[in-house]
Amino acid sequence: EKAVNLKKDLAEMQEWMTQAEEEYLEKDFEYKSPEELENAVEEMKRAKEDVLQKEVRVKILKDNIKMLATKVPSSGQDLATEWNVVLENYQLLCNRIRGKCHTLEEVWSCWIELLQYLDLETAWLNNLEERVQMTGNLPDKLDAVNDALESLESVLRHPADNRTQIRELGQTLIDGGILDDIISEKLEAFNARYEELSHLAVSRQITLEQQLQTMRETYNMLHVLQENLTDLDRQLTSYLTDRIDAFQMPQEAQ
């Protein structure tokens, strides 16, 4: 009777493993939304816990079969053979479910990381757009143009590391068929805005540089002219002080 019950327990254990494999490992999942992906992750976590909780039952079966083999070697030997098959299947199931759970957790982490990088770069793009807009109506002053140019250039020096991460994370998920439509849409919108703002910012940078150069050249010319006028004023003043007649002055002074 003991052997019959153990045989029944082994059969039930094998049946449970077959059902678990069909439910958790053989279903074709399509993750088209973050909610579907998150639900799949939670489901695999529960599956892993469920499978690992069977370790207690596996140990009890093992002990009972050993005890029976000691008392009834013939029955125990047959059960031990069946037990080895069940144990091998159980260990394989545990490894596969652990692996799938780990994979889904990595995929979810990859998605969250992608969103974080997109948020960072979107904030940078917002800042860049604001700086570009600030250069639209500048006072015609050298300091104002120079400050605006330096401010714009400081934003443009933003490193490309985050964009590299966005591209690699997005491509990894798309290649795996994970949220491919959503990610493609997000990346397309981000890249389009990035290209548009980058070109606009660089164009505005060139314009400010040219404007600044023209203003500096103008100020330099005015400075030289001011110095010449000052020298001429000083010379004329000295002539007046010495009461020199205009016709006695050099032609350029006249």
UniProtKB/TrEMBL annotation:
Keyword set includes Coiled coil: yes
Keywords: Coiled coil
Regions annotated as coiled coil: 3-64
Domain of life where this protein originates: Eukaryota
Pfam families: Spectrin
InterPro entries, per the entry: Spectrin/alpha-actinin, Spectrin_repeat
Protein's UniProt name: UTRO protein
